Amino acid sequence: MKESIKTLIAGVLIGIVSLMAMKAQAQDWPQRPLRFVVITPAGGAPDYVARTLASRMSGLLGQPIVVENRPGGGGNIAAAAVANAAPDGYTFLITGNNHAVNPILLPNPGFDYVRSFAPVGLIASGNYLLVASPSLVAKNVSEVLALARAKPDALSFAVTQIGTPAHLGAELFLQLGKINMTIIPYTGVAPAMSDLLNSRVDLIISAFPAVRGLIDGKQIKALAVTRSTRSPVFPNVPTIAESGLPDFDLSGWICLMAPARTSPAIIARINALIHQVLAEKEVTEAFAEQGLDVMPSSPEELASFMQREEQQWAGVLAKASVR
Question: Structural domain tally of the chain?
Answer without folding.
Answer: 2
